[in-house]
Amino acid sequence: MLKRIPFWFTYVFLWVPILVVVAMSFNAGDSPYSWGGFGLNWYGELAGDQEIRTGLVNTLIVAAGSTAIATVLGTLLAVGLARHTRSKVLDAIATLPVILPDIVMAIGLLAFYSLIQLTLGLYSVLLAHAVFGTAAVAAVVRTRLTVSDPALEEASRDLGANGLTTFLRITLPTLAPGIVAGALLAFTLSVDEFVIAFFTAGPQSPTLPIVIYSMVRFGVTPEINALATVLLAVTFTAILAVQRLTRLTERR
Amino acid sequence: MKAKLERITLLGPGLGYLTALMVVPLALVLSYTIFQRGRFGGLVYEPTTENFRRAVDPLYLDVLVTSAWIAGVTTLLALLIGYPTAYVIARLPARAKTIALVALVLPFWTNFLIRTYAWIVLLSPAGLVNDALTGWGLVDEPLQLLYTKPAIIAGLLYSYLPLMVLPLYASLEKQDHELLEAAANLGARPARAFLTVTLPLTLPAMLTGCVFVFVPSLGNFVVPELLGGGRTAMVGNLVRDQFLKARDWPFGATLALAVVAMLAVLLLIQAWSGRRLQGADRA
């Protein structure tokens, strides 16, 4: 039993702060700390918050756009790296966005955008998020490639199919679960990303994390508790849905 | 010829994109470190070593050391808590294992800023921790918990602990139980078997976990700002301020380079120990 203390500590440590925030979101009082009776008023406040709504829409646009770019580029890159090169340098370039600290990437992009005199807006964040998105998709698809059999592709070619047909009818379908998983990862990373967005978003186009940041910095308000609870519920549902989906596809 | 065309179509777009929006920006930051700041922000393209001299000024060196120290303590704590946690998870029955893993990553998928915010709610003078302490009569006055170094470490640990547990879990999970049985049959006690068999085999995963925790901790500026209250600046705060407030991009770039240099050392150690272990495998 003694051996399990760190195990239980980890879970208490990870969950108590979140549960406190969730509990406090149903607080009718004005304080984010002390209980003033049950109420849903902070959810009402949240629903009417124009800034949060703008941030949410911006975040979804950025996540959808960058995921679309990342899925195409990352999938091609994964196949290319696995089947057509042994170069360590190319390999390093494809994994660099994953290990590079976000602040280094952020200042690099800011410097680059200012050099080419690109006005910062929503698209500058979108293009930036596609960078680590591409690396994430490529990494996930590559793990899938290592278990798929190159002999299938060779057979397809031997039977007279050209490169494109082979790619579309053999390679892509076998990689599909990996591509979906990679795209989901890229989307999640983008929705949660703050530092790069903070440096590369125009003043008129804050993403949701930027809105939350300015709220938290301005002062603690119970509205954030309500927002946290909503985000948690969405994440939880999404994870359950993905699990159900993977179980269904595995059974087929 | 055809193979070459295929290679270009597959590799070209992705590598082109990463080159334009990552390699070039990084080269740009690197080149900034030898230039000077213009009088009204901007850059003067005259080479100088001034930025490097300023970075080792005690004032800034102190911040660099403090940042490395905070990130290091966070990583060490994550390892000490994360290893036994991963060990227990890896030995749970299948269904409990799934639940434990989901419960581990779920907090990780809520927004990073909200995870940090939760600690403000907990640690503030009127917060839950102080309520409990005064309520139980352990302290008379609420303690100053927020805006301290331990608060920063708690926030960082909270955000990145799962990144330590997951690689360790993956490594412990696929470990060959027959090796431990063999050790036991040969008379090794559990503690000795753990130290001579399990621990060395999980060393690469330990290092991976350490990199996963240390890297985002070192360059972090949100946690020190929100939980450290600006009293303890970390190098991330300096970089942010140089770029967005002081508009001294060359000096900001130099500080960022210091962060990258520290990480490069860590990655080299990781690669070296990984290779050494592989060598030992073959022998």
From TrEMBL, chain A:
List localization entries: Cell membrane
Keyword Glycoprotein listed? The answer is no
> Where is it mainly found?
membrane
Record keywords: Cell membrane, Membrane, Transmembrane, Transmembrane helix, Transport
Q: Specify the ABC transmembrane type-1 domain's residue ranges.
A: 56-242
| The keyword Signal is annotated on this UniProt entry | no
Any single biological process term in GO: transmembrane transport
Please give the PANTHER family that the UniProt record associates with this protein: PUTRESCINE TRANSPORT SYSTEM PERMEASE PROTEIN POTI
According to UniProt, the name of this protein is: Putrescine/spermidine ABC transporter permease
Q: Identify the species of origin.
A: Paractinoplanes tereljensis
UniProtKB/TrEMBL annotation, chain B:
Protein family per UniProt: Belongs to the binding-protein-dependent transport system permease family. CysTW subfamily.
Record field: transmembrane: 12-35, 68-89, 101-122, 151-172, 193-215, 249-269
- Among its keywords, does the record have Transport? yes
UniProt-listed GO biological process terms: transmembrane transport
Print the keywords alphabetically: Cell membrane, Membrane, Transmembrane, Transmembrane helix, Transport
Start and end residues of each ABC transmembrane type-1 domain: 64-272
What membrane topology term does the record carry?
Answer: Multi-pass membrane protein
This protein is called what? Spermidine/putrescine ABC transporter permease
Q: Quick one: where is this thing mainly located?
A: membrane
Q: Where in the cell is it found?
A: Cell membrane
- GO CC annotation: what is one? plasma membrane
Output the PANTHER family linked to this UniProt entry: INNER MEMBRANE ABC TRANSPORTER PERMEASE PROTEIN YDCU-RELATED, INNER MEMBRANE ABC TRANSPORTER PERMEASE PROTEIN YDCU-RELATED-RELATED
Q: Is Transport a UniProt keyword of this protein?
A: yes
